[in-house]
Amino acid sequence: MGNKIISMMKKDRKDGSKSMRMNRSQRKLLADEEMLHRRALSMAIRQTQLSQRFDRSMSRRAGSTSTRKQRTLSDPFSNGKQVPDFSLESLTVKKFVLVHGEGFGAWCWYKIVASLEDSGLSPITVDLTGAGFNMTDTNTVSTLEEYSKPLIEYLENLPKEEKVILVGHSTGGASISYALERFPDKISKAIYLCATMVSSGQRPFDVFSEELGSVERFMKESQFVIYGNGKDKPPTGFMFEKQRMKGLYFNQSPNKDIALAMISMRPVPLGPMMEKVSLTAERYGKGRRFYVQTLDDLALSPDVQEKLVRENSPEGVFKIKGSDHSPFFSKPQSLHKILLEIAQIP
């Protein structure tokens, strides 16, 4: 009986030690995430201050006008599992260029940047024209070429033999399609993250028509459009009010990331959204495209995403359960795992 009690005490101590180690590991993960979030929040506050100074300056100067392979993944963050069978040495392309969607900026990728760097990869983020820290007035951005200029300039300056993996979120999909058309030999793979993977002749806005209505109706009736050149001129941009934004983009995201987004989102230039994309089979068509679907998305419904991959079939399709339109917030570990899986596809 005494031996049995001693054995049970040893087992309890062992289990307790294991539990303490797990708790320490989980606390470290949470502390690391908190530190990253504070850093991103600090950057966002600085961006807001810069934007406010810019807006006041503009106001003084311009007046007051203002067979597909499919996988379904859940988020492993809760149990701390690492991505299995990942070999950094096996990758020929280690650089990811992360391209944000409408209203967002490079700031939205902060969790993905950290996880890719931890995996030994080289993530690069860009602020498209009029987004994030790019202080261009969004009312002056009228074409997809202008909007995508920071991405295009980055690709132009790549060493001749170097390739990258592009990741485009939401309307950032149009920018990476434009880049594929311009630089098919510099892009190893293009990953569309709940994105506007449109066919040639389509507009990025067309993808959102189920939620926002027709172009004509949106331009005439929407309360969210911005008339930067005056009410007698065509609208130049749009921005949802905060509650609508939360419902569309962040229905599964943590509150602290929603708070970050609320002080960081900027108006969306309307011109690039309304421009018909011109793509050719000889250039865009030779690119390797992959699509990541988000299954709890209220901005771009799973049915619309399924239609996109059916009409413009990519090489592979991946799905994330429980993700809203911002998987870099709501399911960062699942997204990280998928990016590594795609990177390893020969």
Q: What's the number of helices?
A: 13
Structural class: alpha/beta
Largest sheet, strands/sense/barrel: 7 strands, parallel
Strand content: 5-15%
- Total number of beta strands: 10
- Main sheet: strand order: 1-10-9-5-4-2-3
Question: How would you characterize the overall build of this protein?
Answer:
With 346 residues, this protein is of the alpha/beta class. The chain is 44% helix and 13% strand. It has helices at residues 2-62, 110-118, 144-147, 149-156, 172-182, 209-212, 215-221, 242-249, 255-262, 270-274, 302-311, 327-330, 332-344, and strands at residues 69-73, 95-99, 122-126, 164-169, 187-193, 225-226, 237-238, 268-269, 289-294, 316-320. The strands form 2 sheets. A 7-stranded parallel sheet has the order 1-10-9-5-4-2-3, sandwiched between helices. A 3-stranded antiparallel sheet has the order 6-7-8. Helix 1 (2-62) packs parallel to helix 9 and helix 2 (110-118) crosses helix 13. The termini are far apart.
